[in-house]
Amino acid sequence: MTTRRQLLTAALAAGVAVPLVGAGTPPARLTLPAPTGPFRLGTVALHLVGDRELMVNVWYPARDTGRHPLAPWLEAAPLRALLASAGLDADVAGPRTAGHQGAPVLPGGRRPVVVFSHGSGGHRSETTIVVQELVSHGYVVVTVDHPHDSYGEFPDGRLVVPDDDVSTTPWTHAEDVRFVLDRLEELAAGRNPDAERRPLPAGLAAALDMGRIGMFGWSKGATAAALMMNADRRVRAGLSLDGPMQSQPPIADLYRPFMLMTAEFTRTAEDSGVAEAWPHLRRWRLEVHAEGGLHGAYCDHQWLIPQLAAITGMSDEDLAGWIGTLDPGRAVRIQQAYPLAFFDLHLRGQRQRLLEGPSPAFPEIQF
C-alpha cells in the first residue's frame, strides 16, 4: 500500500515538475493559514542526545518578536531530500511558519504542555496548523522528530531521512516521547538539555507546567499517543488524528481522557485497530469523524496539496484523490477548533460544548 509519505512526496514533486519559473525567478512559496488566538508565537529547536539522537521544537507564546525571524516549515535540505526521494532534483519554497525563532517568552506563569508525534516517514512540522493554533491560545507545544522515521536536520548539518532498514514502531515513538519528557523536566528545572548548550529563549523554563501534559499524534504518532499513556502517567490526555491504533504489544486499558478524530481509520474500517482499541478507553472517550476526509484531513497536507494542485493544473478529480471531498478551508477550521477544545477541557478544566454533540458550525463532523 502506498504510504502517506509517498503520497505527499509525489504531490510535492508534482508541484515543481512544471515549467513555472524561468532563470532567476524565485520558486512559488507555499503558505500556511494564520492561527486565530491572541498570542504571538516563538519557537526554538533543541538537539537532544541519549540512547537516541533527535530534534524537537518547543513552541510557546512570545513577546518582542519583531527582530526574530520566522521559522521555516521544513528546512531546505530535508525538503530537497523529500523531493529527491521521488527521483526529482527540483526545488520549491516551503511555507514560513508564524513562529519567531528564539523570541523571548511571554510572561504569564506556567502553561500546559502538549507533545506531538508525527506519522510514518513524516516530520515534526506536519501538523503545524494545529500546533500554531494551540500556542496562539496559550499552550506550550513540543514537536518531536523520530530518528530513522523522519525528514530533518541536525545542528551540524547532518541530514536525517527515513531508513526502511531500521524498525521504528509506534512503541519506538512512545519511548522517544518519554525521553523528551525527561529532558523537558530538566528544562523546567532551569537546566539546558540542548546537546550544544545553545542559548534558550528568555523565560522558557518558567513557562512549562509539567503537571499538565497532553499528547497528540497523526497516524503512527497517534497510536504512539495511546501507548505513551499506557507507559507514562505524566500524560493526562491523548488525542489521535486518524491513528490506525495497531501495535505489538497492543494498546491496553486507559483510564485517562482520549479522543479519536477519524477519517480513514474508523471503528468500521477493515484495516483499522480502532474497534479493538475503543473498549480499552475506560474513562472519557469520544470519536468524531470528518465526512469526506482522507487520512491527511487533520494535518497540513490538506491545506498544502491544493496549493500545489493550483500550481500544476491538477484536475479536480485528481485533487479529490489526494484530499477527498473535505474542503481545505473547512479542514483548517476543524484542525483549529477540535484539538483546542479537547485540551482546554482536559488540561484547563474548561467546559467545551463543541465536544458535547454535533455543532451547526461544523456540519462535516459526525459524532
Architecture overview:
This protein is of the alpha/beta class and 367 residues long. It has a single domain (4-15, 31-352), classed as 3-Layer(aba) Sandwich (Rossmann fold), CATH 3.40.50.1820. The chain is 29% helix and 21% strand. It contains nine helices and 13 strands. The protein has helices at residues 4-16, 76-84, 128-136, 170-188, 220-231, 274-277, 301-312, 316-323, 328-348, and strands spanning 40-49, 53-62, 70-72, 96-101, 111-117, 140-144, 152-153, 159-160, 208-218, 235-241, 258-262, 285-290, 365-366. The strands form two sheets. Strands 3-4-1-2-6-5-9-10-11-12-13 form an eleven-stranded mixed β-sheet, with helices on both faces. The longest helix has 21 residues, at 328-348. 49% of the residues are buried. It holds the Pfam family PAF-AH_p_II. It comes from Paractinoplanes tereljensis. Keywords: Hydrolase, Lipid degradation, Lipid metabolism, Signal. GO terms for molecular function: 1-alkyl-2-acetylglycerophosphocholine esterase activity.
SSE topology:
Elements lengths: L3 H13 L23 E10 L3 E10 L7 E3 L3 H9 L11 E6 L9 E7 L10 H9 L3 E5 L7 E2 L5 E2 L9 H19 L19 E11 L1 H12 L3 E7 L16 E5 L11 H4 L7 E6 L10 H12 L3 H8 L4 H21 L16 E2 L1
Parallel strand pairs: 1-4, 5-6, 5-9, 9-10, 10-11, 11-12
Antiparallel strand pairs: 1-2, 2-6, 3-4, 7-8, 12-13
Helix pairs in contact: 1-7, 3-9, 4-5
